[in-house]
Amino acid sequence: MSPYESTRVRFGKVPTLSTLDVDDDFVLVDSGAWKAATRELPDPIVMLQAGVDEVSRVINREASRTEDFLVAARSTTDVKYQAFIGKYMNSISPELRRISLIVHDNPELNYEEFIAHKALTDFMKKQKGWKVTPSAYGIPTAFIAEYDSGKPGPVRDALRGIGHSCGHNLIAICSTGASLAVASAMKDLGVPGKVILFGTPAEEGGGGKIKLLDAGAYSDHKVDINLISHPGTVDDSVLVRTTAYHNFKVEYFGKEAHAAAAPWEGVNALDAMITGYNALSVLRQQTMPGDIIQGHITNGGSAPNIIHAYTSGIFVVRALSKARLAQLRKKVEACFEAGASATGAKLKITSIISYDDHVPNKALGLVCREAANNLDGKIPEPDIDLINGQSGASTDQGNISYAMPSLSYGFAIKSEAGPHNPGFAAAARTMQAHGRALRAGEILAYTGIQALIDEKLLKDAKDEFAEMVQKL
């Protein structure tokens, strides 16, 4: 019985702190009495062990979607899993460090990550019991590695990215280490189910996860939940939420004419672009918090004495949700249509790529938060974590979160600069960052194991996901 299974227990009313129910390692008490009893304690986190009167180390977690409190000793089973994961991750740290440096020191463009692909697939092929498929689903730098315990159970997947100034070398070793730790627990501790490591290239604007999703990689492998991580410089967060994103190209086609001799014979595509661009600035006054409009002009014409026949630009629109993004896109496109109407130029808008916002699964988040805080983390209560975990960035992981229950654990590394900066790229190579990535791997592995052994946790995660999808 895992701690999560107890969170649905309805507590009775008792006048004093007393045991209501004892189940092996767990003691459940009345929430009001518990609050009263712990009010004077110097350490707000305490633990009551079955049959023991003394108060020692604490796990006290508010039940999901109820006002009940769970007070429980961490079971010996959960202690065993966490200790096992930590020991295992330490044992493979040198190999993960080697892979991390290969990925970091050899930056490669979207869908050209051949060095990283080889380093990771060669390593996974050496792991006993793993089935590795390089260049999976027709994508040269994608791969799939699968470990089957042979026992019926859910399928957990971990995803990794490949890159440089966003710390994708750390994402790679975090998910690789976590997957190997879960597989080792399957072999040595009898954990059921399957674990799959998806090698997903081109996260930075290429949408590798989306391509695998559309190709059926996740449905073919009957994936139940999805876990990933991402480094940054802000506080650690379990319930990371990213913005929905749409990247598109705008082109105007006009008619050339001599700008001094006969400008009236031309149709000015640059005027159309400038009108559309200025209309965006006007629109921003009426946009909502979380709406972001970005862009730059890539072709502004050929010469000053010519009425410009062609202009182009690349633009990005972001919003807090895919639903809001759809609304904002209509408003933005209307701005560019205004440029065409005002000048007579022909407008062409071409979509480049779109990412959904990432919606974290709160049921999985409860266990992930527990794992992080057991490792001296300071993840706050879910309502606060959701606020802290809101990011203006975007990722193709968002599309995964609309296909299955997902978490993207955010962990901080020491850096003078944030992601997408040379300073952050340098920080992602340090031993401090390596240690933080391994710790994140431990947290993901523990969360994955709990999802594999706790049927109620898996059901709650899936029910929450189904409810989210139904509201779309």
Can you describe this structure in just a few lines?
This is Peptidase m20. 40% of the residues lie in helices and 20% in strands.
Largest sheet: 6 strands, mixed
Specify the CATH homologous superfamily of the largest domain.
Zn peptidases
CATH topology of the largest domain: Aminopeptidase
| Strands in their spatial order, largest beta sheet | 7-8-10-9-11-16
Tally the helices: 14
The count of strands amounts to 16
Under the CATH scheme, the architecture of the largest domain is 3-Layer(aba) Sandwich
State the secondary-structure class. alpha+beta
Order of helices and strands: EEHEEEEHHEEEHEHHEEHEEHEHHHEHHH
So what's the CATH class of the largest domain? Answer: Alpha Beta
Gyration radius (Cα, Å) is: 26 Å
Helix fraction, binned, reads 40-55%
Beta-strand proportion: 15-25%
Which spans have pLDDT < 50 for at least 5 consecutive residues? 1-77
Total count of domains: 3
What is the straight-line distance between the termini?
34 Å
Mean pLDDT: 84
Shape annotation: elongated
